[in-house]
Amino acid sequence: MAAMATTAGLYLFPDSPLGARLAGVVAVVVLTGVALRGITRTAQATVAILAPVLLILAVAIVAGLALGEPGRSPGVDPAAVDLAGILGAAGVLFFAFAGYARVATMGEEVVDPERTIPRAVLGALGFIVVLYGLLTWALVRALGSHGLAAAGAPVRAGLEATLGSGWGWLAVLGAVLASAGAMLNLLAGISRTALAMAREGDLPGRLATVGERTGTPWVGQVAVAVVVILLVLATDVLTIVGFSSFGVLVYYAVANLSALTLRPEQRAVRVPRAANVLGLVLCLVIAFTLPAASVGAMVGVFLIGVGGRWFLQTRGPGR
Asked: For the whole model, what pTM was predicted?
């Protein structure tokens, strides 16, 4: 979430680090206010924010495919392929796929969660894979592979290359709105994860407080917002993405490990256990190919978390 806040700020104030940070803080405060109004309002706001984003991406895709030049990308030289670099890039790229799993945290607030959530997760993942694939294809046609690799803002560069320099603002608008939508989604999901952990005694019991009127875990949402604001003010976007990618890959590894313990009749989606083994191995391999600073920092965070959990457990649940 901090990465999204910082990204939005950087798009709005690319030449002012302080302005970008302050804009990110304002975005966090405003979106926290929206999330505190309840899950229905949050969902409505998310749709209102992301609908224009999809339209902007559709413009970029159509422009790239229709006006880009086919064959601009040279073939790949097998001798130049760096496996470690590919795995490291995959770890950072994984950050862009992490949001769909937040759907799984909404079990208390949807009808028939055992049926609805698996369908929503698979639908979201399938949609985003197709969207990313089309966008990548369009940008390669518009910029070429080398141009795409060198672009600091690929969608903006693609729009300017195909439609003209006056279209760059559309990408800026899309990036800011997409960041806002992602922040809102993450705020809702992380606070509900904190709620579940607090109920189990893994986090302070105060985080399990739920608003009587809205049903939202408002203490958790405010706590998440405070932590995000501190990260926005203290770190840079690449550092945050590295932290997030490592954390996401580790908890996906844990999810695969947990899935191995399920009996066939307990699985919402019938997949072979080998898929969970493969997922577990790949998550761990990719996680530890991320920059050493990100890995080391997050391992430290995990150790602090384990120590904090032990402390809370020794005091007794709910305290």
From this structure: 0.78
